[in-house]
């Protein structure tokens, strides 16, 4: 009797196991890139069924799948909103984000995924990407090479995989859509544990150069307007085993070679460096906008590169996003913005969608003062929260981010029309609108002249900075 029950239990267990295996999306090894392994790149029907093309419905709309503040063709401050914003979908967070973190397994299992990283799966993701872009109503996207196509056992195989996926992307994007920028992922693979351009191993340096060369070529082929360098591991963990001077020299030579190759292939896009202070390394060489600007000046690269400012990176470096944008702008280096934010209670790069209206207004102040961002724009280097797992959440997060920045632009228009804030700043510096002030600003006032004036004027009377009034004026526009 007991033996019979055991037999029945094992039989049931085998049936259940077979059913689980048969229904599992993991049909072949996760690192198998064969087109024969895993899903076909074809997908029956829509990837996002039931989700219409997102339209502008105005601030009173209660429809979560609509724009309340972003009206693409509405003209504000002499430009259409879409031309101020130039919104871009980031492929890696949108289609490769898993919800995993250092403390937990992935939580995102999109219906079109089969659990593999095959070429067929990469092509399927690319089809989903362009349906998403079309429904969101934008015409720009951005990517890392290894996020859109699987790596290979050799560089030749990796390049072939990339070529195959890029050919499909070229077909799908047509004439209307193109990349805001492309980049190369030089931080995930173990070969880059010491960095790419700053690795202590010359073979790694060469491999990184080859990978960037290929990524730049495909970005150019797809009509990309920019190319980004994010030095995720270009830094050090300790100076005890690091020749920092030599590594910085190597990084400069690497960027020089990239700028030369860009010209050789006729790529007219802007080269962008994305500052970040730390994480994953303890110290990264492009710590913030000022550090990066100094690096570019030292090595004579100031005319070859601009900066891609990420708001969450700004706060990690101890600055506000507005500070980093203004630093880049005043140095003539503001090229693009990674539109995201962090959480003040969490100490790492959380890459959340920007929802703070005040922060968005300050971001747009810099953009308007810069005259716009073109050929750069805003890319959403932002991911869904780990707990947000519905497909529609992909749309809601982007809609929220776009509406927040659009609201920021509308607020800037109010501030400019009112003129009170600009007036307050102008009055604060009005003592320099005098003859002696003009001489100082023209570099024609030496110390002897200034000493004479100081004795003539006596103890200076220092007026109020009116900080609270400035904040009141700013808040009134929100």
TrEMBL record:
**What keywords does the record list, in alphabetical order?**
Carbohydrate metabolism, Isomerase, Metal-binding, Signal, Xylose metabolism
What processes in GO biological process is this protein linked to? D-xylose metabolic process
State the top-level EC class.
isomerase
Q: One GO molecular function term?
A: metal ion binding
Q: Does the keyword Chloroplast apply?
A: no
Signal peptide bounds: 1-22
Regions annotated as coiled coil: none
Which InterPro entries does the entry mention? Xyl_isomerase-like_sf (IPR036237), Xylose_isom_bac (IPR013452), Xylose_isomerase (IPR001998)
Supply the EC number(s).
5.3.1.5
The lineage's top-level taxon is Eukaryota
- Keyword Iron on entry: no
Per the record, what are the reactions this protein catalyses?
Answer: alpha-D-xylose = alpha-D-xylulofuranose
Return the similarity comment.
Answer: Belongs to the xylose isomerase family.
Q: What is this protein called?
A: Xylose isomerase
Species this protein is from: Vitis rotundifolia (Muscadine grape)
């Amino acid at each position: 009797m007991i033996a019979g029950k055991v037999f029945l239990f094992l039989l049931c267990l085998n049936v259940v196991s077979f059913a689980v295996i048969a229904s599992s999306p993991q049909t072949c090894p996760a690192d198998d890139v064969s087109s024969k392994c895993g899903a076909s790149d074809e997908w029956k029907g829509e990837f996002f069924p039931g989700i219409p093309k997102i339209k502008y419905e105005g601030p009173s709309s209660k429809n979560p799948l609509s724009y309340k503040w972003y009206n693409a063709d509405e003209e504000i401050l002499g430009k259409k909103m879409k031309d101020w914003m130039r919104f871009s979908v980031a492929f890696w967070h949108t289609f490769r984000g898993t919800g995993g973190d250092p403390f937990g397994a992935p939580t995102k299992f999109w219906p079109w995924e089969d659990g593999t990283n095959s070429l067929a799966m990469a092509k399927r993701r690319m089809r989903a990407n362009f349906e998403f872009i079309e429904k969101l109503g934008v015409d720009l996207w951005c990517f890392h090479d290894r996020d859109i196509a699987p790596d290979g056992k050799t560089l030749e195989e990796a390049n072939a995989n990339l070529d195959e996926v890029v050919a499909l992307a070229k077909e799908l994007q047509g004439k209307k859509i193109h990349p805001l920028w492309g980049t190369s992922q030089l931080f995930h693979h173990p070969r880059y544990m010491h960095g790419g351009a700053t690795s202590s191993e010359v073979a790694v340096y060469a491999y990184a150069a080859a990978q960037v060369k290929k990524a730049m070529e495909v970005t150019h082929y797809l009509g990309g307007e920019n190319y980004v360098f994010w030095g995720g591991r270009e830094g050090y963990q300790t100076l005890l085993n690091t020749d920092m001077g030599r590594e910085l020299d190597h990084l400069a030579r690497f960027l020089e070679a990239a700028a030369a190759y860009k010209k050789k292939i006729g790529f007219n896009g802007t080269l962008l460096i994305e500052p970040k202070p730390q994480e994953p390394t303890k110290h990264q060489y492009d710590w913030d906008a000022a550090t990066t600007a100094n690096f570019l000046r030292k090595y004579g690269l100031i005319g070859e590169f601009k900066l891609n400012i990420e708001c969450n990176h700004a706060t990690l470096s101890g600055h506000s996003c507005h500070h980093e944008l203004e630093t880049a702008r005043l140095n003539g280096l503001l090229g693009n913005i990674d539109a995201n934010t962090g959480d003040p209670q969490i100490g790492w790069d959380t890459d959340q969608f920007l929802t703070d209206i005040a922060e968005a207004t300050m971001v747009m102040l810099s953009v308007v003062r810069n005259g716009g961002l073109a050929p750069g724009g805003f890319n959403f280097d932002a991911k869904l929260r780990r707990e947000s797992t519905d497909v529609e959440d992909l749309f809601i997060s982007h809609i929220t981010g776009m509406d927040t920045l659009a609201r920021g632009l509308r607020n800037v228009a109010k501030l400019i029309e009112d003129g009170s804030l600009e007036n307050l700043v102008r009055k604060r510096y009005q003592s320099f609108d005098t003859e002696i002030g003009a001489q100082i600003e023209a570099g024609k006032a030496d110390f002897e002249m200034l000493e004479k004036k100081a004795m003539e004027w006596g103890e200076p009377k220092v007026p109020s900075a009116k900080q609270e009034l400035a904040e009141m004026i700013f808040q009134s526009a929100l």
